[in-house]
Amino acid sequence: MCRPASMMVSINEIYIGPTDSHENIKSIHSLTDSFPIRYVPIEIYPDDLDFTRDPKDWKLHTDLLKSDWPDWYNEKEAEIACRDKIPQWIANLKELDCDCIAIKELPVFPKLRQLDCSYTAIKEFPVMPNLVELDCSYTDIEELPVMPKLESLDCSHTPIKELPVMPKLERLYCRCTAIKELLVMHNLKNVYR
Q1: Predicted TM-score of the model (pTM)
Q2: Pairing mode, strands 95-97 and 190-192
Q3: Burial class of residue 87 in the structure, from the number of CB atoms within 10 Å of its CB (0-12 exposed, 13-18 middle, 19+ buried)
Q4: How big is the CA angle at 156 (ends 124 and 184), to the nearest 5 degrees?
């Protein structure tokens, strides 16, 4: 699994995609593996995994052994260039899989449609208006905001006591929660308690 934010660095360009996957970025931009290496996979993230931190505090990790770095690759220059891409990455991200990473807080990802933040240290959940699928199981989240487009929610093993009305919710996994009563949600087809 790639750690967000994932990017691909070439000799003269930084490539990002709508997910946190290097393979997805390669596919979208038609990047092919070759020798000599033309694209270097990197991950850039804050040390404490608080994604609300200023991008100047994020650190770069080159996802290749140093012995495999191409001659043109300069990690310091890549770090500066990748930091400049972070706001664009946040603004355009559509899928994020950050389960089992010690993330404590998430920024608002305006275009995010699918999020797996299960098994993280997140306690508060920001409003994400375009979210369609959310897995926040095994977190300490106590309350969720209204998410008008949400169709699938897994909030199992959380301290959540009640859910706001979510008009498009079809699937709800809420095992081992404090939810005693569900509000009427007309689209709800499957409830797993």
Answers
A1: 0.81
A2: unpaired
A3: exposed
A4: 90
- pLDDT digits (tens), the chain, 193 positions: 456 789 999 999 999 988 888 898 999 999 988 888 899 999 998 877 777 788 888 889 998 999 999 999 999 999 999 999 999 998 988 998 887 777 778 888 899 999 999 998 888 888 899 999 999 999 999 999 999 999 999 999 999 998 888 889 999 999 988 888 776 566 777 676 7
Tell me which amino acid residue 165 is. Answer: V
CB 22 within 8 A of CB 41: yes
DSSP 3-state of 77: helix
CATH topology of domain 94-193: 3.80.10
In the chain, where the domains are located: 6-92, 94-193
